[in-house]
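Example 232, ligand 3-iodo-tyrosine.
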Amino acid sequence: MSDKGYPYTGHGDFIDYDYERRSEADTLDAAQSFYELMNRRRSIRTFSVDPVPRRLIELAVLTAGTAPSGAHQQPWTFVIVGDPEVKKRIRLAAEEEERTNYLDGRMPEDWQDEIARLGTSWQKPYLETAPWLVVLFEQRYGVDPDGSRKKHYYVKESVGIAAGMFIAALHNMGLATLTHTPSPMAFLSKLLHRPANERPFVLFPIGYPADGSVVPNLQRKPLEDVMLEVGD
Ligand code: IYR
């Protein structure tokens, strides 16, 4: 036992946690209002061409980077694209893959039936209209300064958590996005010149929603369907 208040056996450098406990009432208020904020988030596929300051993207990436990660390896790279030429190349390559998915039967019928209510097609105009595209890459392994491979732990979990926090950060600032996974995504590595240790994880078009944007009328599962208490 150390004097740190728990059975500490590590050898790291420890600092005080910056934390102030709130009253139960304030805690409940914060919980309720954060839920209400997040419950208004929707995936958006129609973007305004209005510019979005680069600083907002930086702040969203900084927020995503606060995510916990396996062994604190932070195995993510956010590639941001505002250049219309690069966006166009991404759109054309994504649409080529999606055309095969939707029109040439690479996406099986039951899958197509499952997503029909989302109103998607092989066409992805938002890849050009959204002022920013951010492609999140997972680092399957690290590369040390001497060029040797470093094992990364829990990469998918870590990057998935960072993606969720990125989405929450964007929504909190009033920006819209979509978790787009053009399939297969390998073309993104090529177009964005990413090294062999990185794999595309998800592509986020980001911007303000276009005026008059509509979203599919979907319901979220009620609490009792997603949460259960177990106890003896
Ligand atoms: N990747 C395709 C198809 C697609 C798949 C799922 I699962 C979705 O939730 C939505 C779309 C596309 O982007 O259109």
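Summary: The first strand starts at residue 76 and ends at 81.
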